[in-house]
Please model this.
Amino acid sequence: MQLSRVVATSAVIGVLALAGCAAPQPDADKTPEPPSYDYDLIDMSSIGAATPAGTALSFRDVAWLPIATDAGDVLNGFTVLDVVEHDSSFMAETVINPEEFAQYTPYVIFVEQHVDGDVTRGIPQVPLYPMLADGTPGAYVQSPLDAASGGCGAEIPPYDGSNTKMYCIIGLAAEGQQVVGLLYNNTTSLDVWADPENLYQSAPVTWTAPTSQHP
Model:
């Protein structure tokens, strides 16, 4: 697997390949403790107005963001519960080619998403990008991941078919960088040109830890 650069977001994307029995396994004595996932979920039962482009939020603040569906745009609620730096050894159990990610420090980003309406087809996957300290999108392993995959080195509550789901994203920081939050710019890896009608592309919604939590 090779990493590639997405022009629209400047995010480097690694395609997730779940490890099978042939994947190298880390030494049991070196397996890190998984990040904590014991977070109280946010009540998003009352829909708010669409969050304006450029809004800067703290962890556990809710954004209501337009998501394209066959029936038109609908608002989904999102919040970031936490961002936790993790030991890279867990990647050997997550991808079949962990050597491709050896240059990065992984961060587990815990996300909560709420859908107002029919979820018979499940919770839609929406591109959300790790945010580096300079405000730009960072590298990530394609996600979201949930407890069924165990792919982010942390077991989280399995999706129960309700309108709210908790999942995790693996953000990747190169040497000298740090993942400090998450951003939404309403683009995908196929969006390689600036879209003047997409206000979020040039002014994303962001989540970072409160100032007191930064190192």
The domain at 4-18+54-188 is CATH 2.60.40 (Immunoglobulin-like).
